[in-house]
Amino acid sequence: MGELRRLACLGVPDGGTAVRPLVWKLLLGYLPTERAFWPHELEKKRSQYSAYKDEFLLNPSEKIRRFEESKLLRKKELNSDKIGLLPRAKVTNEEHPLSFGKSSLWNQYFQESEILEQIDRDVKRTHPEMPFFSAKANQESLRRILIIFSKLNPTIRYVQGMNEVLAPLFYVFKNDPDTSNSASAEADTFFCFVELLNGFKDNYCKHLDNSQVGIRSTLSKLSQLLKRHDEELWRHMEITTKVYPQYYAFRWITLLLTMEFSFNVCIHIWDAILGDPEGPPDTLLRICCAMLILVRRRLLAGDFTANIQLLQHYPPTNIDHLLHIANRLRGSVAS
């Protein structure tokens, strides 16, 4: 794995469509290092995802219908006219669509509707310029993944912009030339998405914003990193012009740079983020710091307005040079 990480940091070669899906699955820990275990692990995870879809994507009436159907089957009281139906007199308060009970499936369903609507809106806005993401089937896959994630992670749920983090993973796995893998891209993407966000989840928890592990702490680490490597630039940014990281780096960090570069360039940057042995969170901060150093002359010459505009609309750059600068900062992120 050490050699694989080293090579990934250099970037998967152009035309790496065939190898990148496998490399990312290994780097994210979705696949074990022992190849002999791959078939069993993939079958287990894909089956688990199928169970998640059954559990989390059915509407309450369908859940109740299936529950009643299985109950009647056990009692051997089914007949052709009443399969899965509840007699009106037997509909309990908790099963009624107007119930406000905490255990009511309908109450939970309506409370989640706002999140589902936000997911729908964001999925439709995901890279509309790319035919791949405009395809209905692919949008439905993204939607299902985000819904299941939100229900399995109630402390985070869905945070606007997660669709942008999900998109590169799904794109890479869905375009796997191995049809058996591309057919299961949705399941594979879900578990890799979970693994990826596991290292960044504190950035998405509102109740941790002011803690030592939340997004403000992460932004503070970026500030410290810049000060350590370029105090002149840090002083101009944060003391002279008062351009603090929260004004420009919040999006960089929470969306893993997906909005700062073109999609293909982002894929290349992610090779390094996923492959670096220091781990994605520290690697991302080093790349963010390198982005500042790379445009230091323009930043030192700019005032508050000019620098905000520059960093919120980061200019096209040589990505290999950017990653080279980030690599020189290795081992310097504050713990």
Automatic annotation (TrEMBL):
GO terms for molecular function: GTPase activator activity. InterPro entries: Rab-GAP-TBC_dom (IPR000195), Rab-GAP_TBC_sf (IPR035969). Residues 14-277 form the Rab-GAP TBC domain. SUPFAM superfamilies: Ypt/Rab-GAP domain of gyp1p. PROSITE patterns: TBC_RABGAP. GO terms for biological process: intracellular protein transport. It comes from the Eukaryota. Gene3D superfamilies: putative rabgap domain of human tbc1 domain family member 14 like domains (1.10.8.270), Ypt/Rab-GAP domain of gyp1p, domain 3 (1.10.472.80). PANTHER family: TBC1 DOMAIN FAMILY MEMBER GTPASE-ACTIVATING PROTEIN, YPT_RAB-GAP DOMAIN OF GYP1P SUPERFAMILY PROTEIN. This is Rab-GAP TBC domain-containing protein. The lineage of its organism: Eukaryota, Viridiplantae, Streptophyta, Embryophyta, Tracheophyta.
